[in-house]
Amino acid sequence: MAEFMELEGQDGVRMAWNVIPGTKQEASNCVVPVSAVYTPIKPFPNMPVLPYAPLRCRNCRSVLNPFSIVDFAAKIWICPFCFQRNHFPPHYASISDENLPAELFPQYTTIEYQSPGEASSIPPVFMFVVDTSIIEEEMAFLKSALSQAIGLLPDNSLVGLITFGTLVHVHELGFGTIPKTYVFKGSKDVSKEQLLEQMNFFLIKPKPPTGVIAGARDGLSSESIARFLLPASDCEFALNSILEELQKDPWPTPVDQRASRCSGTALSIAASLLGACVPGSGARILAFIGGPSTEGPGAIVSKNLSDPIRSHKDLDKDSALHYHKAVKFYEVLAKQLVHQGHVLDLFACALDQVGVAELKVAVEKTGGLVVLAESFGHSVFKDSLRRVFRSEDKDLGLSSNGIFEINCSKDIKVQGILGPCASLEKKGPLCSDTIVGQGSTSAWKMCGLDQATSLCLIFEIVKKEIPDATLQSSNNQFYFQFLTYYQHSTAEMRLRVTSLSRRWVAGPGSIQDLIAGFDQEAAAVVMARLVSFKMEIEAEFDPIRWLDKALIHMCSRFGDYQKDSPSSFSLSPRFSIFPQFMFHLRRSQFVQVFNNSPDETAYFRMILNRENVANSVVMIQPSLISYSFQSAPEPALLDVAAIAADRILLLDSYFTIVIFHGSTIAQWRKAGYHNQPEHQAFAQLLQAPRDDADAIINERFPVPRLVICDQHGSQQS
């Protein structure tokens, strides 16, 4: 496993098969598809950033890389993807074996290009969309958290504010004399044209001709835009004043009804306003929602409390009245946001469901962040929100306006991507007929991405026949190139290029090579993303049966055994943990929906779909570490036998971290022994799991829930 982590440390890529099956039949026999989990803008301290434009192949547009064949005498390079011969431009005239440009260094398979003149002129934009149909206590928590967040905003960032309950209020922050808002009916969908008309955008400049959508580039004056989007440094006082005076929605709610809440209309208005004012910028809509949407487009339940919110059973029976209509509405909203290049971040804090399952498509396609907590006063929400704006060592590295492209050898096609992106529908010879996730394209839009955002790329091997041995030994490499063009958090445009080469094998003697290159952690994560995707789109899909069949086929292909002798079965160490991962995946929250609401299931799957391999493995199979006087901290089996009176256990299931004190440890702690100088060792034992838990919490987004409990205590279950 260490060598695969080393490769990830160099390129941000983990592949399930690091030696690739060379033919279509071989690949299908391998069960786990040829795939890669790639973190496009993972930070690398030693990665060079080149201050010039990349050199591209004139045929396939791939970028010059260490796998290109170079003729230094003729000043020609041959593209490894399409074998096109390309001439070096004049400024490469001095290159030689001893004088290589950085992009040809063998160790720089991942490199970044920075175009000096291409920095965006538009600063970061944050549109806060705040739910006011919540109880007073929650309102106070939310106002406090928002005030802190506003204080952390970069001074030059543009800020807007929309509040909603029964009605939608768009606050005109630029009107400093008195608070001024534009009010829209929550039950009615408002088009972009109606929005601009009603908000007097055309008082200074005439309205553009019919059929032309107005925007910052073609008709809206900067004065009009500055009424609703102001630099944080200019409007901090106005924003805090509005927040201080913000009250819960004044419309009365009958005892037998839910509060009136028009989340869909508010988000639609926010998207249209940003689309008019700052199209193409990396603007973010931060939605703070404290309950289910009951009004207007995107409603997930009626106001009547006698109508329950949809459950998994309702979705399975297709009896959820509002579900399909709401999903369709958010699909249209997602398409609009992707077209504008804007991101939707969701902070859902309520004991009830709020509609994460319906909103999932809009958040995921725009690459937005999602946080689910039970209250706006909970540390999961407060700490996660702070982390979004914090710019210390643990900065999320929020970037925007990404376009992700793939190039690969002609015997490989792309089936699609499972992850936070949207298809740009760039069809071509690389596209497979089989579509998985966002497929039928070789380019994707990533409106929002951060240093941890990870995509799962699914490939198809199209070569049908096994080549003869001489050809196989002379030309046995498959090449991949991942291009990520994005707006860095410093506002400059960058191009990250990762070029990979993997050996392929085919024929009778290939099994040992395939086994040697199998990354069981990456394979488990790919299977988890695939099974989650299939559960969402295939009506009669049985995930347990599918996983069991996959595991049986894997074991029969790669296991050693004698027929009719179960005791003779053995697996190579390269495969030995994979069945364990499948065991836990079958029981995980991604597959078992019992005891979880559709919102929780959607939330877990959204996080799985954006996290890297190491974090995803913890979601599938939690880690358990044991602390005792007898030994240093050591991993323990996920078994009740790990519990002992003189041990402390640290359980990390990604979303929750539990510190569990054995009964003797708990009694000593209650007796205060750790405060006595002669029991320094006990104090250190108590502190060690807490320090490790804090280290995990500091690295993770969303911030996990921390539970500290004792054996035989109320929280131990």
From TrEMBL:
Key words, A-Z: Cytoplasm, Cytoplasmic vesicle, Endoplasmic reticulum, ER-Golgi transport, Membrane, Metal-binding, Protein transport, Transport, Zinc
GO BP annotation list: COPII-coated vesicle cargo loading; intracellular protein transport
Gene3D superfamilies named among the record's database cross-references: beta-sandwich domain of Sec23/24 (2.60.40.1670), Sec23/Sec24 helical domain (1.20.120.730), Severin (3.40.20.10), von Willebrand factor, type A domain (3.40.50.410), Zn-finger domain of Sec23/24 (2.30.30.380)
Family matches, as InterPro entries: ADF-H/Gelsolin-like_dom_sf, Beta-sandwich_Sec23_24, Gelsolin-like_dom, Gelsolin-like_dom_sf, Sec23, Sec23/24_helical_dom, Sec23/24_helical_dom_sf, Sec23/24_trunk_dom
Subcellular location: Cytoplasmic vesicle, COPII-coated vesicle membrane; Endoplasmic reticulum membrane
Residue ranges of every copy of the Zinc finger Sec23/Sec24-type domain listed in the record: 54-92
Molecular function per GO: GTPase activator activity; zinc ion binding
Ranges for domain Sec23/Sec24 trunk: 123-389
Topology within the bilayer: Peripheral membrane protein
Domain Gelsolin-like: 632-716
Sequence ranges assigned to domain Sec23/Sec24 beta-sandwich in this UniProt record: 400-505
Record has Transit peptide as a keyword: no
Record-annotated Sec23/Sec24 helical domain positions: 519-617
Family label: Belongs to the SEC23/SEC24 family. SEC23 subfamily.
Function: Component of the coat protein complex II (COPII) which promotes the formation of transport vesicles from the endoplasmic reticulum (ER). The coat has two main functions, the physical deformation of the endoplasmic reticulum membrane into vesicles and the selection of cargo molecules.
Protein name per UniProt: Protein transport protein SEC23
Annotated source species: Gossypium mustelinum (Cotton)
